[in-house]
Amino acid sequence: MEYKLSPSILSADFCNLEEGIRQTEENGAVYLHFDVMDGVFVPSISFGMPVLASIKPAVKQVIDTHLMITEPIRYVEAFAEAGADILTVHYEACKDIRATLDKIKACGMKTGLAISPETPVEVLKEFLGEVDMFLVMTVHPGFGGQKLISETLDKVRTLRTMLNERGLETDIQVDGGIYAFNVKEALDAGANVIVAGSAVFKGNAGENTRELMEILKNY
Ligand code: DX5
Ligand code: ZN
């Protein structure tokens, strides 16, 4: 399994965004997590396509886009044009999940399917083998800086078992409340793509990235 760090710029200093991102890239983060919130699916509003379009040409990282928006199918093309490489949509936010995933593929992006903490992992069963990455939210989507809900890691364990039983090596991403002190719990549960916002961007992004990457490399 390949272990990857996906720093979430939600917690970055937007006046010094380029420098912050650069520090994560130089220290081994091959993904960059881009959280889009619409104030409807989640209470808060973050940023969207124009910001992504500015970041895209400045980095080599895989743009790992997490859409926390209602009916994301409406924006699939726009995010492809802006530079998203992976487009993750929420199970709870789509009327027609298959149509949404098909559109993401047709636009040349990798597919991601996310579940919030209250959604049982069994709903993902019918999509095994059909998506490139599952995202098991480890906090309620909407804000950075929350505490990891440990029960969500049971869902990661179940999902990894379901994938293993089918011989699938699909990525499992975890997002929310992950720090150097608890990342190993997520890895032990079966996650291999680690999102970290506060843990990377609060303080020195370069040093924080290095510390997390060290754990992932030695795992
Ligand atoms: C929360 C977002 C996360 C957020 C994580 O809804 O999806 O990506 O940035 O932030 P931390 O790592 O601070 O919990
Ligand atoms: Zn996210």
From TrEMBL:
Enzyme class, first EC level, given as a word: isomerase
Q: Which cofactor does it need?
A: a divalent metal cation; Co(2+); Mn(2+); Zn(2+)
One GO molecular function term of this record is: D-ribulose-phosphate 3-epimerase activity
Which positions does UniProt annotate for substrate binding? S8, H66, G142, F143, G144, G145, D175, G176, G177, G197, S198
Q: Taxonomically, which superkingdom?
A: Bacteria
Which UniProt keywords are listed? Carbohydrate metabolism, Cobalt, Isomerase, Manganese, Metal-binding, Zinc
Active site positions, chain numbering? D35, D175
Residue ranges that the Swiss-Prot or TrEMBL entry lists as coiled coil:
none
Q: What is this protein called?
A: Ribulose-phosphate 3-epimerase
Q: Which organism is it from?
A: Coprococcus comes
